[in-house]
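Structure (tokenized):
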């Protein structure tokens, strides 16, 4: 592991001081991003305190009812309190500097496609909001349509 050196010069005293720091091995060396890959199929967002499924839940796009059930019945990394994210929560994963997918693909496994949210539309209970990880858009769709699923849970401090 490379050491980091910092040199401080005290011009009045005419002295130089050099300090060396060597990062400790392990996952807590530094947080280079707001996301922490927990190594167990989950990712923790240090900004929101949410824990996400690293990958898509299931292998295919599914209707909203099946998406909601898949999240509620999911057991991942020993946790059983998974749920479908709200529109605001899922949009928080969009990375505006990327497209196809519009998410940090070094952290998340993601189809550049639509993902369900738990947020219903205000004008029709038969519709719900989706987020596109192709370009980072949000739009609505009837709940009997098809989209992919990413699960979320509140992660208490230290999890």
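Design, position by position:
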């Amino acid at each position: 592991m490379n050491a980091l050196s910092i040199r401080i010069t005290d011009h009045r005293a005419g002295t130089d001081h050099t300090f060396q720091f060597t990062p400790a091995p392990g996952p807590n060396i530094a947080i280079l991003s707001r996301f922490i890959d927990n190594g167990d199929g989950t990712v923790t967002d240090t900004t929101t305190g949410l824990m996400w499924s690293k990958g898509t839940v299931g292998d295919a796009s599914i209707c909203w009812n099946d998406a909601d059930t898949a999240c509620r019945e999911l057991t991942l990394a020993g946790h059983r309190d998974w749920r479908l994210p709200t529109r605001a929560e899922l949009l928080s994963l969009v990375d505006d500097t990327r497209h196809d997918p519009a998410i940090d693909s070094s952290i998340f496994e993601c189809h550049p496609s639509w993902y369900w949210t738990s947020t219903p539309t205000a004008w029709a209970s038969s519709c719900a909001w989706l987020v596109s990880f192709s370009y980072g858009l949000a739009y609505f769709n009837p709940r009997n349509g098809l989209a992919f699923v990413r699960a979320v849970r509140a992660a208490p401090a230290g999890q």
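Reviewer-requested clarification: Residues 64-72 form the longest helix (9 residues). The two ends are 27 Å apart (CA to CA).
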